[in-house]
Amino acid sequence: MKKQAIILSLMMMTLFGFQSCDIEEEIIDEALGEELLTNADTATLLAPAYNNMRRVYGHRWFFALQTFSADEGMLPTRGSDWFDGGVFQELHTHSWTPTHRYTTETFEHITAGLATSSQAISFLDEGTQEYAEAVALLSHFMWVALDAYGQVPYRGISDINFNADPQVLTGSEAISTIITNLETVMPALPTGKNTVRYTQDAAKSLMARIYLNKAVYEDRYAANFSFSNEDMQSVIDLTTEVIESGAHSLESNDYFSMFDPDNENHSEIIWAVKNEKTSVVIGGRSVSRNTTNGLSRGLLYKVDGGWEEGSDAGCALPEFLDTFDPVNDSRYFKENYPNEEGTIALDDYEINRGFLEGQLYGIKTEDGSPVINDDQTIDIVPVQLFTRDFTFADHTREVSLIAENQSVGVRVSKWSIEDLGANRDDTGVDITVFRLADLFLMRAEAKLRLGSGDALSDINAVRVARGGADFALSSATLNDVYLERGFDFYWEYHRRTDQIRFETWEDAWLDKTDSDPNKRLFPIPPGPLAQTPGLVQNPGY
Question: What does pTM read for this prediction?
Fold first, then answer.
């Protein structure tokens, strides 16, 4: 193992555990000295880089930036609730500034990931699998920075000098660096199925995503994006390699199983950010909050040792919901218990999945506590806001940024909350990042932009898996790809990026009229801007 004079002090930023495939983080700080670092096993050195990904993909970080700034969702102010200094209103109306809390914190988490990946690279031996994984993780953090902020602090992947200022890469230089680094380490990355380690298929998926968005990244403020035939062919080639690898298959039975606590090594997932219930809490920002924060305050759900209620926060936008076929699309709603009055076994009470629309039904409560019958059954009744005014929880599509009450707005229950710890953050649900459906739809889009190839078969591969043969389309356009991406990837960190690429980002939607193309990038926070030579503020800020 390499010896370096630099102590891995930055690992103190990632003291939340990652347990999978023998990777368990050991707390390392300067007091332990270089000897521990140079004698540490490779898994211990690699773990912090994986761990930092959990923060980047946290509920109020990359998720909020990708979701609540887009046309799929909003987090309205409800009376005195959820104003939070205007941070969610600013995301929705595209009026954020360089001091916005969540654009700032997301940037900080990305740069922490860049740091821990670089530190791991500096201590791992080139040519090893662990070194290759560290480079791949660095490349992924670099992609998030490029996609969201357009600027990537970078120190290289060999002979790293931590005392020198990093380069700041943008546009074509950032793209070529990420691609070259991934190609360099590709042979050492693991093959086959392992959804919580960065495999060759994960790296190819990232490369395909970069090539698909390359026209955007190279000319961020263009009136129209020009997608080159060469780039689209690269997307087709890379996605085809993954699709034909045989390691993954589309989910055709239960769409929501990809977001369940046991989703590690799910057949459709290519790579996911690992979660464990035993991981140290990241402070109300877990992927579980992608669901619980939107649930009604009157709806009780199980946690370890008791019950919790929702927070009446985020909801879906009506125009986005209007694009779905709620009757025939299995992705829209999954019934775990009937949303009507009745009696069921307590063990059968599992929160319904997908979009929760209309009058909500749930476990009967008394003074905020669940009523459990002597025979271990429960009564399902209309949900009322027992923490507020006891009005009924009627999740209408009609909603506004300043909501008329707690209940308006259709809620999204995509990520399972069936294994939550008492704090509502501990969960075993891995955060899906690359899925096979994404590869099929990326390939379909590339074929249509190239004007060659059978895009219809790729779209229908996904649609038939979700709804059977009758759910197939008879023709395919780019708009069909765009719609399908919304159907399959809602609430999954995709929408902002997709809207920019499909040139709908400047459109108006509910309570959002801004059309400034400068908002295709988030601002660089003032602190890093002042402290990092080479960073410059993005236009419009």
Answer: 0.93
Whole-angstrom distance, CA of residue 479 vs CA of residue 476:
8
Q: In whole angstroms, how far apart are CA 232 and each of 21, 335, 486, 491? A: 35, 39, 21, 26
Task: Grade residue 168 by pLDDT with cuts at 50, 70 and 90.
Answer: very high
Direct distance between the N- and C-terminal alpha carbons of the chain, in angstroms, rounded to an integer: 44
Q: Are 169 and 222 in contact (CB under 8 A)?
A: no
Contact at 8 Å (CB) between 266 and 247? no
Are the C-beta atoms of residues 293 and 301 closer than 8 Å to each other?
A: no
CA nearest 52: which of 118, 139, 114, 122? 114
Parallel, antiparallel or unpaired: strands 152-154 and 77-78: unpaired
Convert the pLDDT of each residue in 197-218 to its tens digit.
999 999 999 999 999 999 999 9
Helical pair 455-467 and 478-489, crossing angle rounded to 10 deg: 30
Query: What is the Cα–Cα distance from 119 to 482, expressed in whole angstroms?
Result: 39
pLDDT digits (tens, 9 = 90+) for 281-332: 555 578 888 999 999 999 999 999 899 999 999 999 999 999 999 999 999 9
d(CA 360, CA 326): 17
Q: What is the pLDDT of residue 280?
A: 55
| CA separation for the pair 294, 416 (Å, rounded) | 13
Whole-angstrom Cα distance, residue 413 to residue 107?
27
Over residues 467-494, the mean pLDDT reads 98
Task: Give kind and range of the element (H or E) at residue 380.
Answer: strand 377-382
Q: How far apart are CA 302 and CA 421, in angstroms?
A: 9
User: Is the pLDDT reported for residue 29 higher than 90?
Assistant: no
Closest CA to 240 of 265, 205, 266: 205
Strand extents, DSSP E, 238-364: 269-273, 300-303, 306-309, 315-316, 333-334, 342-345, 353-356, 358-359, 361-363
Distance separating alpha carbons of residues 15 and 86, to the nearest angstrom: 30
> What pLDDT, on the 0 to 100 scale, is given for residue 226?
98
Q: Which residue has the tokens 């909020």?
A: 64
Instruction: Please give the average per-residue pLDDT across 403-422, as a whole number.
Output: 94
